[in-house]
Structures are given as C-alpha cells and as structure tokens.
Amino acid sequence: QMPGTARHDREMAIQAKRNLSKTTDLVEKLHLQCLARGSAGIKGLGRVFRIMDDDNSRTLDFKEFVKGLNDYAMMIDKEEAQEIFRIFDKDGSGTIDFDEFLVTLRPPMSNARKEIIMQAFRKLDKTGDGVITIEDLRGVYNAKHHPKYQNGDWTEDQVFRAFLDNFDSPYDKDGKVTTEEFMNYYAGVSASIDTDVYFIIMMKNAWKL
C-alpha cells in the first residue's frame, strides 16, 4: 500500500500501542504516543508541535512543552520533564524549535533505507536538480486518474501540488520538495517499520522501483 495511506497509518498505530507498554525511555514513549495516534510523519509531528506551541512563536518553552506532554497523556514528573526537555533542546537555548523537535523524535535510519528513499527521490526528480516540483511530476505521473481530477474539482497542477504537500515541511509549503523534506517524511514512516527488508519492499512497491 502507498505510504501515508489510512491502512498504513492504522498498522503503525497498532504496532505503537503494543510497544508502548514495553518502553521506559521517555523520548521513545512520546514518539510511540505520536505513532499510536497515527501522526508519525513530519505532517503529524508538525501538528503536534503547533498544538503545543500556545503562543505561535514557532518554538516551545519549558511550560508549553510540559503542557503539551500532558495533553499527550504523558504523565511525567518535573525532573523527568526537565531531562527530556534538555534532550530536545539541542543548542541549549531554553526553547525547542521545530527542527530540534523533529530530529529528536525521528530515530536514525539505516543506510539501506536512506538509499532506497534516495532512489525514489531520483525517480521523481526528473530534472535532477535536487528538488521535486510540479514540472518533475508531469514526467512521472498521470494526474488524470485522480478522482478529484476526474470529477472536475482539481486541475492537473492541483493534483500534483496536493501530492507534493504531503512531503513538504509544514512550515514551508512552497510546492517544492527538497531531499531533506523527502527524507524527513520517510523517517516518520520508517520509524514504524521494524525491518529494513520490509521497508525496502514497501518502497519498491509504492514507487515501482
């Protein structure tokens, strides 16, 4: 199935709920809570971050962070909260920005996974300039099969744009998807898939690699 589809999200959520009971690691717990709610990818984490960010400053201070954790049913005491805040706050500025948030909640990927993600990226990046745009997609995809195109709601460009928005960073929806944004998206997906073999099969099927 296509990554990011409802079925895929449901499978991730079930897996995450199973793992939640086993872990004592706080960051892992938060990560699994996000997965269990079906918001693993960069989009979902962007949503979590924005909900926590009460004053819309695009950063989280300690108070917002703790309140956010409580909203996510992460009942932890103040010492634990400080410890986990320090892990997120990579540059020690006393606030967590979205990038720090993402990087912490995203487990590292094996080289095998990165390689297959890059293969998919290169397939989409027809012009080879390291950015996927609507122009690139025209060469790879036929938008005319899309239900919204068929019923006249969307133009071809809108179909492509919606596709790109899936991968685009939530704070920077510009209709261009960089390698980093593409990687970020799949890091979220990758987190929920235990074995490299399964991840690679899923990517090959999704992108016909």
List keywords for this structure.
209 residues; mainly alpha; two-stranded antiparallel sheet; two-stranded antiparallel ribbon; 12 helices; 4 strands; 61% helix; globular
Description:
The chain starts with 5 loop residues before the first helix and ends with a helix. It has helices spanning 6-20, 26-36, 42-52, 62-71, 78-88, 98-105, 111-124, 134-140, 147-150, 156-167, 179-190, 196-207, and strands at 59-60, 96-97, 131-132, 177-178. Helix 1 packs antiparallel against helix 2 (26-36), helix 3 (42-52) crosses helix 4 and helix 7 (111-124) runs parallel beside helix 12 (196-207). The longest helix is centred in the first third of the chain and has 15 residues, at 6-20. The mean pLDDT is 83. The strands form 2 sheets. Strands 1-2 form a two-stranded antiparallel ribbon. It has 209 residues and is mainly α. It has 12 helices and 4 strands.
